[in-house]
Design a protein that fits this description.
Elements lengths: L1 H32 L3 H17 L3 H20 L3 H17 L10 H15 L3 H17 L3 H17 L3 H12 L6 H17 L3 H9 L5 H15 L2 H12 L9 H17 L3 H15 L18 H13 L3 H19 L5 H6 L1 H22 L3 H12 L3 H15 L4 H25 L4 H28 L9 H11 L1 E8 L3 E7 L4 E7 L2 H12 L4 H6 L1 H14 L10 E5 L28 H4 L1 E4 L3 H5 L10 E5 L12 H11 L2 E5 L5 H7 L5 E6 L1 E2 L8 E3 L4 E3 H5 L7 E6 L6 E3 L3 E3 L1 H8 L4 E4 L6 H17 L2 H14 L10 H4 L2 E4 L9 H34 L1
Parallel strand pairs: 1-4, 4-5, 6-7, 6-8, 8-12, 12-15
Antiparallel strand pairs: 1-2, 2-3, 9-10, 10-11, 13-14, 15-16
């Protein structure tokens, strides 16, 4: 009897499963046969129901089929973010259920390829690379040449978008080696290669490529247009462009493709100084992306969606305008769309890649406001311009800082806890991927890590939506008064630089005022800055020609208009671009013929320089943790050619001055650092470090291993101070706005607000002397910015140090980024005051006693 019941339920279960599977396929096919908004709405409702019911792998596969068709429709109708979300869910479902073993369903063609293209469209370059590499790997495994070539084409297009043209050429040349390339793919590869060759100004190679080209008439004319445009022959470019336009009807071009075509046309008319024609083309582009928009002019924000073509449209529209207000409104729409796109990015690499376009736009907005200010003298425009500068300063660091502050405020919130755990995992796997790509680079391992990162990205996006609903953005407008209030408290002045393409802007905020200066960034000006920075490449350069140094240091002082700050003792500097590598303390305030460094009028003699990555960080009030002592790491590297002899002196000085735990030699391991770093309020690392290169990221050495930049990103630290007594800890690949991708930045990302680090290579007795002096002063004041300043002054005034060793090469390498902590009261002064107070009381008592004695004698007499 039991067997009969079991068989009955089994048959019913199979029947139900088949019915559900068939129901899903029927729903998908019904939608495919009649695609419109109404059928999409119904399909979405059905999808939600199916998600809660699917159990078997066949049902899961049916749902994936439905989602891929839904994603395709959403992509075609410019619902890009919804399309991405749908494809991501389909891919996650496919991988989690290991459906590649069950079916020959083409996940590459139906999901991975469109998803990779969507990431590229929305500027999510990290996920795009990861996704394309995943399907190239799958294509290699299945020996599917067509998909391998397709992957190469899409990867090349992606790298072309981010101007990595040398990489593009390598990818294309490797793709050419595949057998049986069809004519369409070959034409695409040739077109991509030609565009990158043009960007590299290799016209001879372009000409050779044309002679063997199999491209269509449209592609040939389009290529001629690109070549003439790059050469600056705009009339010839327009002629070729119009010829290509005639063939548009013969090729399939999406609405988005047409919009991009009209934007190119508008850019060409703009270069030919035909603004009316350019505006007509832009209106055509807008109507391609917004079919229901029937007006002239600009759409409103509510009409827009995350699509980077809008940014190209609004940026060009603004550039054409003569009216400053209309230009700023158009740029504002570009920033708005950029923000919509950014909401869907999860990796910091993607955010940094996209900083450049925002920077260029910010400079144009500052230009407009500065020129308007010169005419109107309206001071409110200056703070508005300052905000454009500030919005592009260390935005990734700011974002992480806000997340950490929110988690501190709500430590028991499971959403925030999970988000932070995923962010740490993302950086951990990114670090592993970086190391793998530097090493053996096994395709299977790279693919596995890429899949991990994709899965984390999917989860972060889901969490982000939930968190945004629970904690809506608090768009508090930062006021000038708030900055000035902080400056009054710190007895300081703030100077922020914006290093643009054409102009270096200097914003000065004092207790009562805000001013702006502009410096034209000519080639000569840039070269002067670079020459000054290179004076610190080696100790001998300055000492071999001291007069050259003093002349250059004074010239840079004047160039950066630092004399405008001369009446202020504490100066907060927010550097930008090349200025990140200039030690402002070592600038010379007036001309001098002296060759004695201790007598030179260095900025440090009259002013205390404190740096920060952004004015927002300076403004943020930070709470100091309870003093839990200092953790010091000193690998020393004895018996090697990298021995750090003077590092031992540093360790002794720290032990003398501070409550500390010191890890020396083999105990100064990477593992010990990772285990203990979060337990101490001060971290001190005296070791070797590297700024990295175009292949290797910045890194810092421990006794037995190397800690790479991405590994630092995955740490959660909250020290009061980090001291990096190592070479090049402040140097790294420079990204506009975000700054140098250095070890110091890695510690900032991990949670350190106050850092002392070096800008160039220096391993010398002078370092240990300065560090010793720093901790002596820190022990007295508990203020890092005061201790840093005093250590440099004491070094210059120390008569036991030779003039050669007083070169700024030795003492100005260390810069302090952080807050201006108030110094603790000097106990000696307290005892003196207390002693005077006690002495005064005793004196008063004595006088009172004497007076009382005189009065007694008078009465008795």
């Amino acid at each position: 009897m039991k067997k009969i019941f079991f068989l009955f339920f089994l048959i019913c279960g199979v029947s139900f499963s088949q019915n559900l599977e068939e129901t899903i396929y029927t729903a998908a096919e019904t939608f495919i046969s009649n695609k419109n908004e109404v059928s999409l709405k119904l399909l979405t409702q059905q999808e939600t129901s199916f998600k809660n019911r699917v159990e078997t792998k066949d049902e899961q596969l049916a749902l994936i089929f439905l989602q891929c068709n839904k994603g395709y429709y959403l992509d075609e109708h410019s619902e890009l973010i919804e399309a991405i979300s749908t494809y991501e869910d389909a891919l996650k479902r496919f991988n989690n259920n290991k459906l590649s073993k069950l079916s020959d369903f083409d996940i590459i063609e139906n999901c991975l390829k469109p998803l990779g293209n969507l990431y590229t469209k929305t500027g999510d370059y990290t996920n795009a690379v990861s996704t394309i590499n995943q399907y190239i790997y799958l294509a290699e495994k299945s020996k599917n040449t067509k998909h391998q070539i397709s992957g190469a084409i899409n990867l090349a297009k992606l790298y072309q978008t981010i101007n990595k043209h040398e990489t593009v050429l390598k990818i294309v040349d490797n793709a050419y080696k595949f057998p049986n390339i069809d004519s369409h793919q070959k034409a695409l590869l040739q077109s991509i290669k030609a565009n990158s060759l043009v960007s590299l100004n290799n016209y001879e190679a372009v000409s050779h490529l044309k002679s063997t080209s199999t491209s269509s008439s449209f592609e040939n004319h389009k290529q001629n247009y690109v070549t003439e445009l790059q050469k600056g022959n705009y009339s010839e470019a327009l002629n070729s462009f119009n010829k290509a336009k005639k063939y548009l009807s013969e090729i399939h071009v999406s609405a988005r493709g047409l919009a991009k075509f009209y934007v190119e046309e508008a850019q060409l008319y703009h270069l030919l100084k035909q603004p009316n024609e350019a505006l007509k083309s832009l209106q055509q582009a807008i109507k391609m992306l917004l079919p229901s928009f029937n007006k002239n002019g600009l759409p409103s924000k509510k009409d827009l969606y995350p699509e980077n073509t809008f940014i190209d449209i609004f940026d060009l529209y603004a550039a054409i305008q003569n009216n400053p207000k209309q230009a700023l409104e158009s740029y504002d729409l570009s920033f708005y769309v950029s923000h919509l796109l950014q909401e869907n990015w999860t990796s910091q690499e993607t955010k940094i890649f996209n900083e450049t376009s925002n920077r260029i736009r910010s400079e144009r907005c500052i230009d407009i406001l500065f020129n308007t200010y010169k005419q109107t003298k309206n001071k409110s425009l200056l703070f508005e311009a300052f905000q454009y500068s500030e919005n592009n300063k260390a935005s990734v660091l700011k974002d992480m800082s806000q997340k950490k502050m929110r988690l501190k405020q709500f430590p028991d919130d499971s959403l925030l806890t999970k988000e932070f755990k995923l962010l740490k995992a993302q950086e951990y796997y990114t670090g592993l991927l970086v190391k793998e790509q530097l090493g053996a680079n096994k395709a299977s391992t790279v693919n596995h890590l890429s899949e991990k990162l994709s899965a984390i990205s999917f989860q972060l996006k889901t969490l982000k939506t939930a968190i945004a609903k629970k904690y809506p953005e608090n768009n508090k407008e930062t006021s000038l008064e708030r900055f000035q209030s902080k400056l009054v408290k710190d007895e300081a002045i703030l100077v922020e630089y914006f290093f643009g393409k054409n102009t270096l802007y200097q914003f000065i905020i004092s207790k009562k005022d805000i001013t702006i200066e502009s410096i034209q960034l000519t080639e000569e000006v840039r070269n002067n800055m670079i020459r000054f920075i290179h004076l610190f490449d080696d100790a001998s350069i300055i000492n071999n020609d001291i007069n050259n140094y003093t002349n250059q240091a004074h010239a840079i002082f004047k160039l950066l208009k630092f004399n405008k700050l001369s009446n202020h003792k504490n100066v907060v500097v927010i550097p930008d671009g090349l200025l990140n590598f200039i030690p402002f303390e070592a600038l010379i305030t007036s001309k001098t013929t002296s060759t004695s460094f201790s007598r030179m009028p260095f900025v440090v003699k009259s002013q205390n320089i404190i740096y920060n990555s952004s004015a927002t960080f300076y403004q943020t009030e930070s709470k100091r943790g309870k003093n839990k002592g200092l953790l010091g790491f000193f690998p020393v590297f004895e018996n090697t050619n990298q021995k750090l002899t003077y590092s031992i002196n540093e360790a002794k000085a720290i032990k003398k001055e501070m409550n500390s735990s010191i890890f020396m030699n083999s105990k100064a391991s990477k593992n010990n650092f990772l285990k203990n770093a979060s337990k101490y309020s001060i971290l001190h690392l005296s070791t070797h470090a590297s700024s990295g290169d175009f292949i290797n990221p910045a890194n810092i050495s421990f006794y037995n291993d190397t800690l790479f930049l991405n590994e630092l990103y995955s740490l959660d630290l909250n020290p009061d101070l980090v001291v990096l007594s190592a070479c090049e800890t402040g140097i790294g690949k420079l990204y506009k706005g975000e700054g140098a991708m250095s070890i110091a930045r890695g510690f900032q990302y991990a949670g350190a607000e106050n850092l002392l680090f070096s800008l160039w290579q220096i391993n010398d007795l002078s370092t240990s002397q300065i560090i010793q002096s720093f901790y002596e002063n820190y022990n007295k004041s508990e203020s890092a910015y005061v201790a840093n300043y005093q250590s440099k002054i004491e070094y210059l005034e120390n008569e036991a140090i030779s003039n050669v060793k007083k070169s700024p090469y030795y003492w100005s390498a260390f810069v302090y980024y952080g807050t201006l902590e108030p110094t603790k009261p000097d106990k000696a002064i307290f005892y003196i005051i207390f002693g005077i107070f006690i002495a005064s009381i005793v004196l008063l008592l004595i006088l009172k006693y004497k007076n009382h004695g005189r009065n007694t004698r008078r009465i008795s007499s």
